[in-house]
Design brief:
- It contains 13 helices and no strands.
- Helix 1 packs antiparallel against helix 4, helix 8 packs antiparallel against helix 13 and helix 11 runs antiparallel to helix 12.
- The longest helix is centred in the first third of the chain and has 31 residues.
- By secondary structure, it is an all-alpha fold.
- It is globular and about 50 Å long.
Length: 409
């Protein structure tokens, strides 16, 4: 029987996972359909369309940098609720955005609020997950993000096509409003790590400046992966129109199926064998998925591409996040989560800009094939790391026991 300290499925963990699902669902219901709406309603160019993804991502990145510092100073609840209020108001503001400039301004405000919330919720979750089950726990928690990433575009596109943009906004308002009554009792109950408690195995890590250099590698890998997802989020609907696939957004639904299937498995493998058993096979799955997608002309081929991509995506996300969390002491997990999501959003922003330009001079199918080159760089960088890293120990920091002391001696 497992020790009570190893219990994962607590009420607090479940509720935080639900809150995270709702926050990312609000984002994704708007993000993917917005590109088509902006292009058709405002007759915007491909570059202008990509700006809506890029400016949102950049505002979230800047917001997270400040949020991580505030979390270290014990201002978690203030950051959480300020972020949620800003996201709610920005979502409401879409209704009065009669011009591209106003709509873009609302996206920036939403990015600031989303950056605060998306840093705080996983930090709260990682603080209550048993350390021996960190990979498994964050895999399940991250499943809420992946489900939202996969189902949100489908739901949002359906509402936009059948009911119009105002109906889509009202629906996303309800989604984000539901977070407040769920998260309020958790904000009072879930304990914050004290700023003074630094385990001895992390004593060499700078505690007050920047971020640990060990986070650079997984952040870079996360960015390279996210470039490809930026191409999916920003241009999937336009790709569908190019190849005459009316239901191209179903890619995200099939992607969700694969993510749900692989997440529990990949998390347990990570806890037993670490990231070296997962990252290269997962990146290979993404490459196969992108190439299959680029040649898709039917729903079944689209489904096959999405399943391959989802297996890789559902493995890489929790693996990289868990790896980053293990590289910092508990009170700096806000920084690790900030870097994880910032590299994710920066990759999406870079992907929207670069891949959008490629599509402007070729086709969306060609664009997806070119995007796989970023995964080739991913594999090359990671192999170089494996060949040059210290022989002893896979991680830069030792694995921890439930009381945050070393179990490696």
């Amino acid at each position: 029987m497992k020790d009570i300290k190893d219990k994962l499925w607590t009420r607090e963990f479940i509720m935080l996972t639900v809150c995270n699902l709702l926050l990312f669902l609000n984002l994704q219901m708007i993000l993917s359909p917005l590109s088509g709406y902006v292009k058709e309603h405002f007759h915007a160019s491909a570059l202008t369309v990509s700006l809506f993804t890029t400016m949102f991502a950049l505002s979230a990145i800047v917001s997270r940098l400040f949020s991580a510092k505030a979390l270290e100073k014990g201002k978690r609840n203030a950051i959480l609720f300020l972020g949620l209020v800003l996201a709610l108001l920005a979502t409401l503001g879409y209704l009065w955005s009669s011009s591209l400039a106003l709509l873009l301004a609302m996206r920036i405000v939403f990015g600031v609020g989303f950056g605060m919330g998306s840093t705080t919720l996983p930090t709260m979750a990682s603080g209550i997950v048993p350390v021996r089950r960190l990979g498994e726990g964050m895999g399940y928690f991250g499943l809420s993000t992946s489900i939202a990433l996969s189902l949100g575009p489908v739901i949002g596109s359906t509402i936009l096509d059948k009911q119009g943009f105002p109906a889509l906004v009202y629906t996303t308002l309800i989604v984000i409003a539901l977070i407040f009554p769920l998260v309020y009792p958790l904000a009072k109950k879930v304990k914050q790590p004290g700023p003074a408690a630094v385990p001895k195995e992390f004593s060499a890590v700078p505690q007050n400046k920047g971020f640990p250099k060990a986070l650079l590698l997984p952040s870079l890998l996360n960015l390279l992966m996210s470039v490809t997802y930026g191409g999916l989020l920003s241009f999937m609907n336009l790709f569908g129109k190019e190849v005459h696939l009316a239901n191209a957004s179903l890619f995200f639904l099939f992607n969700a199926v694969a993510v749900i299937l692989i997440r529990p498995i990949s998390g347990k493998i990570y806890d037993k064998k670490g990231h070296k058993a997962l990252l290269i096979p997962a990146a290979a799955c993404l490459i196969v998925g992108l190439w299959l997608l680029s040649f898709s002309t039917s729903t079944w081929f689209l489904a096959l591409a999405a399943l391959c991509y989802g297996l890789g995506f559902g493995t890489l996300q929790p693996t990289l996040q868990s790896w980053m969390l293990q590289l910092v002491p508990p009170q700096r997990q806000g920084m690790a989560n900030s870097m994880y999501f910032n590299s994710l959003d920066l990759g999406v922003a870079v992907g929207a800009l670069i891949l959008g330009q490629i599509a402007a001079f070729s086709t969306y199918g060609t664009m997806y094939r070119y995007s796989s080159l970023f995964l080739g760089v991913f594999i090359a960088v990671y192999v170089l790391y494996l060949l040059t890293r210290p022989k002893e120990g896979e991680q830069a920091s030792p694995k921890l026991s439930p009381d945050n002391t070393s179990i490696n001696g």
